[in-house]
Each structure stands twice: as structure tokens, then as C-alpha cells.
Amino acid sequence: MNFGLPELIIILIIVLLLFGSTRLPKLSRSIGQSVKELREGLVSKGSSTETKKTEDKKDEKKV
User: Most buried by CB count within 10 Å: which residue of 2, 25, 27, 30?
Assistant: First the structure.
């Protein structure tokens, strides 16, 4: 499913009509913050997973 320029413009117009020009910046800001928190969560989960793997390897060497 590829979206071309005309489809994206139509979607943008619909979003503008639904949310209005005053609420659109607030909506964009909240979406941006959500994406940022999601990325931070993924990074922290990845680092904790790596820590667990390292600890497991240390435990295996002791046995």
C-alpha cells in the first residue's frame, strides 16, 4: 500500500478538519512526546535485556 502525494494531502486536510487549527499543534506535540517515551522505553528495555544476558553468562561460567 503506497501512499502518493495526493493521498497524503487528502489525509492532511481531513485531519485538519477533524482537529482544527488550534488543537493540531497540541496533538502533534503529544504524539511527539509519546514517540519519544516509546523510544526511551525500548532503549531501556534493550539495555536491561543485555544486562540479564551478561549476568547469565557469568553464572554459566561459575558452574
Answer: 27
Q: What is the DSSP string of the chain?
A: ----HHHHHHHHHHHHHHHHHHHHHHHHHHHHHHHHHHHHHHHHHHHHHHHHHHHHHHHHHH-
Residues of the chain with pLDDT under 50: none
What is the model's pLDDT at position 2?
A: 82
Domain boundaries, the chain: 15-41
Please name the residue that has the C-alpha cell 525500548.
42
**Is residue 19 a contact partner of residue 27, using CB atoms and an 8 Å limit?**
yes
Residue 63's pLDDT is: 56
